[in-house]
Design brief:
Blueprint: E1 9-11, E2 16-22, H1 46-50, E3 77-84, E4 96-102, E5 113-117, E6 123-126, E7 129-137, E8 140-148, E9 153-158, E10 161-170, E11 173-174, E12 180-188, E13 193-194, E14 200-204, E15 208-212, E16 214-222, E17 227-235, E18 239-247, E19 249-257, E20 269-273, E21 279-284, E22 289-293, E23 295-303, E24 306-314, E25 320-325, E26 351-352
Parallel strand pairs: 3-9, 10-18, 19-25
Antiparallel strand pairs: 1-2, 2-18, 3-6, 4-5, 4-7, 7-8, 10-11, 10-15, 12-13, 12-14, 12-16, 16-17, 19-22, 20-21, 20-23, 23-24, 24-26
Length: about 350
């Protein structure tokens, strides 16, 4: 994606690199049209909401789009609506979902939907009375109660919203999008003030996710092992926060072989452990692949009733194969599962599970 504006700010170093851009230049975005808990909007396609033919990007000094309102039908008033990123920020040029509800609930408790639109600055023709004007932009929204009389009027709402685009790398090499996912939580991880449930779960690498402005904490998960990085970021109104999270990990392929360079044996059960004996990941097969954070590990292979083990080191960015040799590796006592409650001597090279109960 190309950005028309130069970065407004940049921060580098540590586990994450952050840059900020004007959000009005960055489309499309990801988010739930209409916001959480709202009924679906009819009469448009996803491409319409993401790239409608509407207002061009504008700054804080632009004029109201409704300087002249159209003549309404008899008995109605014209209400021209628009939205800004903030009191002193520019108009939101696209991606808005507008709804007008009656301000009195029906017998069922629901508020009737009177009108809706996906234009950036629509005009509604409304009968005199009370209404609730609601606008959403991705996962951010704003609402206002209005009273419509005989005269036409303009309404401008403020949506304190920004966006994030998340990516991850290892040693400055981008991680393929299908191998990394992001969960976004409200609050600060560094300050110990975060929600327990994700505000947005499973964001893909490179997606633009529109959020209410504020502080968020992002969890980047690379693969299915223990390569997890957490970092805080700040979403500013009208800004796109482009963040690259730096993992220190590698992809490790495991093989159980008779000897050096031998053929990997199928139907092997694998467990990857920390030096303290905690299990990180388990799998079954001839060539399991684990993404592991850099550090020291032990692996246990179980095949044909016998157990073998090997210790190895993961270096960031160095994807490699780890061969466990049946004729050379003995399971260390600290890493062996205790099948009979004892810790007797084990012959060098293997442990025969058929001799235990």
């Amino acid at each position: 994606m190309a950005f028309a504006a130069a970065p407004a700010s940049a921060e580098t170093g540590g586990a994450m690199e952050v840059r900020s851009f004007d959000l009005a230049q960055a489309m499309p975005f990801t988010g739930t049209p209409g916001g959480p808990g709202m009924p679906p909007v009819t009469g448009f396609s996803p491409s319409t909401i993401l790239n409608p033919n509407g207002l061009p990007p504008a700054g804080p000094g632009e004029r109201d789009p409704h300087t002249v309102l159209p003549q309404p039908p008899a008995g109605k008033a014209a209400v021209g609506v628009s939205a800004r990123f903030g009191e002193k920020e520019g108009l939101i040029p696209r991606g808005l979902v507008w709804r007008v509800f009656a301000d009195k609930a029906e017998a069922s408790g629901a508020y009737p939907l009177v009108a809706e639109a996906v234009e950036p600055a629509p005009v509604f023709f409304l009968s005199p009375g009370g209404y609730v004007l609601h606008v959403s932009y991705g996962l951010a929204s704003s609402a206002r109660k209005i009273i419509v009389g005989a005269n036409s009027r303009r309404e401008q709402l403020v949506i304190q919203a920004g966006a994030v685009k998340l990516q991850s790398d290892v040693n400055d090499k981008p991680i393929p999008a299908q191998k990394v996912a992001f969960d976004i939580f409200e609050g600060s991880f560094l300050q110990g003030k975060t929600s327990t449930r994700p505000f947005f779960r499973g964001a893909n690498s490179g997606q633009l996710v529109v959020l209410p402005s504020g502080t968020y904490h992002v969890v980047s998960t690379y693969g299915e092992g223990n390569a997890v990085i957490q970092a805080d970021l700040n979403v500013q109104p009208g800004k796109l926060t482009d963040a690259v999270i730096h993992h220190r990990a590698a992809e490790i392929t495991l093989k159980l072989v008779q000897g050096v360079g031998g053929t990997a044996l199928p139907d092997t059960q694998w467990s990857v452990l920390t030096p303290g004996g905690d299990t990180i990941k388990e799998a079954t097969g001839a060539f399991p692949v684990f993404v592991l954070a850099e550090g020291e590990y032990a692996v246990i292979a179980r095949h044909d009733g016998k157990t073998y083990t090997k210790e190895f080191v993961v270096e960031s960015g160095k994807d490699t194969e780890v061969e466990v040799q049946m004729n050379a590796q003995a399971a260390p006592k600290s890493a062996q599962p205790s099948f009979d409650g004892t810790s007797g001597e084990v012959p060098a090279g293997e442990m025969n599970l058929n001799d235990t109960e």
